[in-house]
Write a structure and sequence with these properties.
This protein is mainly α and 303 residues long. It has a single domain (2-113, 140-292), classed as ABC transporter involved in vitamin B12 uptake, BtuC. 73% of the residues lie in helices and 0% in strands. It is built from 14 helices and no strands.
């Protein structure tokens, strides 16, 4: 039961950086752009957020700088794919590598340093409940990420702005013929996705694991990319997928603590193996993929 309580208590926190990055990437892909630089944007946000929190002790300022850093890096990507009509896969990989390199450069002097995390919010009458109580005792960023997911679902499904973004992703030429500024909309979506990636990285380095170590993002950006496909570009499914992979990452720690007779490398690879398996299962359903996929995803747009 202690292992179950540990997993329940930490699932939301472990899922939060994945959820933030995946929600941002969902908006980007809904607009018809594929951004493979998510890992680098998260890494840069993690480094900048940690440095600011370490120097000032202000988490809000750290998240602000991290979000700006992710947005600036995403605009470099936007200038390549929207301004110069570069290949989105190559540009995304290049910008991702740039972000990883910059994070190593700016964070070198802060290697192995630590910062205080955010306090958890105790809900009167709920935080003391057995099993469920630890799940509900989370920091404010966890709750804000869930509110953000609900807000994005409402905007994309029930607002004119969401309809315009979806229209641009499905048929940018038709959207332009109707008078919508396709390039500006896609640029805004990319900047929004980069901002959330930076925030996700800052949460990972200043709250979830409040220390800086080069490479600490450790593939979370790629898992977030996989979550968007896993969730078939639907907000609710992406939230479920983030919670699932958050629980899997904690299950590895619980298994090691319980003395499960498997090498630690096998347990550590479990979330990534499940990611590959789920993508294979989902991709095999061609009918669903055709029904939910974004028609112009990854295709260059030239007015």
């Amino acid at each position: 039961m202690s292992g179950i309580a540990f997993i329940l208590a930490g699932t939301l926190a472990a899922a939060t950086p994945l959820l933030l990055a995946a929600l941002g990437e969902m908006v980007v892909e809904r607009s018809g752009v594929l951004n493979l630089g998510l890992e680098g944007m998260m890494a840069l946000g993690a480094a900048l957020g940690f440095i600011v929190v370490f120097l000032t002790g202000n988490h809000a300022l750290g998240f602000l700088v991290a979000g700006l850093g992710g947005a600036v890096l995403s605009l470099v990507f936007a200038s390549l794919v929207l301004g110069f009509v570069a290949n989105q896969v190559a540009a995304g990989l290049g910008v991702g590598l740039l972000g990883l390199g910059l994070s190593s450069l700016v964070g070198k002097a802060y290697e192995s340093r630590t910062v205080p995390g955010l306090p958890r919010l105790h809900l009167p009458g709920l935080s003391d409940l057995p099993l469920v109580g630890p799940l509900l005792t989370q920091d404010i960023v966890v709750w804000l990420s869930l509110v953000l997911a609900l807000g994005l679902w409402a905007v994309l499904a029930h607002s004119k702005a969401g309809l315009v973004v979806r229209a641009v992703g499905e048929n940018p030429h038709a959207a332009r013929a109707l008078g919508f500024p396709v390039i500006a909309i896609r640029c805004g979506a990319i900047a929004f996705g980069g901002t959330l990636a930076g925030l996700a990285g800052a949460y990972a380095s200043t709250v979830y694991t409040p220390l800086w170590a080069d490479g600490m993002i450790a593939g979370r950006g790629w898992i977030a990319l996989a979550l968007v496909v896993f969730g078939t570009w639907a907000t609710g499914r992406i939230v479920f997928g983030a919670l699932l992979f958050g629980a899997l990452s904690l299950g590895e720690l619980s298994a090691q603590a319980a003395g499960v007779g498997l090498p630690s490398q096998v347990l550590a690879s479990l979330p990534y193996a499940v990611t590959i398996l789920m993508l294979a299962v989902i991709s095999s359903d061609r009918r669903r993929m055709r029904r939910t996929a974004i028609a112009s995803l990854g295709q260059p747009f030239e007015p």
